[in-house]
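Memo to structure team: turn this sequence into structure tokens by end of day. - J.P.
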Amino acid sequence: MSTLVEYLKSDPKFSTLVAAVESAGLVDTLNNLDANLTVFAPTNEAFEEALSILNLTAEELLKDKETLTSVLTYHVLGSKVYSNQISDGMEANTLNGEDVEFSVTEEGGVFVNDAKVVEADVETSNAVVHVIDTVLLPEDILDVQNEDEEENNGDEDED
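Reply from structure team:
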């Protein structure tokens, strides 16, 4: 059975995530065979949308190791959580230190914050992976983004 990073590298829809993990220096952490992790893995499309929201290029994000590490560790739980263990309103602490909240729809759809789980319970030797359609952005990143937007809006009003 492949490790988490080997699994991600084997699927082209995770090429941006793999590049981010490598740039942040998290490969060894996520390949640790003694770890039992849950990873919410955003697709390349999810990263494109997040970069647009953050008003960054992929290159800019990959160079900003602090932001990158914060975002990536917000996608990781320190234990394996399978979809049948998730309940509506449940919260879990991420490796970044902030919580994510789960919601379950009547139709059985599972969401992590606002990200829909599009493929659940992919087993690797050291993690369970849930593929998501949106990059999870921690509050500290969203707060900075909101401050930047307010500053930009304020600048426009002064002209």
